[in-house]
Amino acid sequence: MDDSATTMDSPEVAQVASIASPVNLILFSLLIVLAYMRLRPTPPMTLPKAPPPIVFRTFTPPELKPFNGEKNMPVYIAVRGKVFDVTPGRQFYGPGGPYENFAGRDASRGLACNSFDEDMLTKDLEGSLDSLDGLGSDEMESLQGWEERFSEKYLVVGKLVAVGDENAPKPEA
Question: 22, 153, 29: which is closest to 84 by C-alpha?
């Protein structure tokens, strides 16, 4: 009986050895790794932080001046009375950019004339707004193109009025 039991055990031992071959162990390990990768928990998705809300407001030239991108302030530019938040284009309109002299100012005349000169900007911030007198049809067409480009690309955050205007914000006492 011992001999017959030994002969019956040897095919089972041979069969167990064939299941535990190196190739089968590698395939089984790969199956376990793939199952883990497929079923492992994923971290929850987080939404990006929303930008602070922007309230439409009325600006006077002195109130618009600080919005020139310095001291971590947003960059605003006025074109024909509309104030645009051009902060996404800070590399162009902020400090060090090619259009930096327009930041925090009424850029209408400079954009119409395609000029970056300081003399294109209104010097007297307490005076009346630039009426754009003296501009030809080509300049007005250029200015309209700039205004359309800004309207497509940037948010309008306010309007620009003269200091003494009835719509100007009243100074707080």
Answer: 153
Question: Phi/psi at 116 (nearest 5 deg)?
Answer: -100, 10
Longest dimension (CA), the chain: 121
Looking at residue 3, its pLDDT comes to 53
Alpha-carbon span 140 to 126, nearest angstrom: 25
- How are beta strands 155-160 and 57-59 bridged, if at all? parallel
**CA 23, 24, 25, 30 torsion-angle sign:** positive
Contact by Cβ (8 Å): 137, 77 = no
Instruction: For residue 84, count CB atoms less than 10 angstroms from its CB and return exposed for 0-12, middle for 13-18, buried for 19 or more.
Output: buried
- Per-residue HEC secondary structure of 108-165 comes to HHHHHCCCCCHHHCCCCCCCCCCCCCCCCHHHHHHHHHHHHHHHHHCEEEEEECCCCC
Nearest to 92 by CA among 159, 149, 157: 149
Give me the residue label for tokens 């302030």. 73
pTM recorded for the entire structure = 0.68
Q: Quote the pLDDT of residue 11.
A: 57
Residue 21 confidence class, pLDDT cut points 50, 70, 90: confident
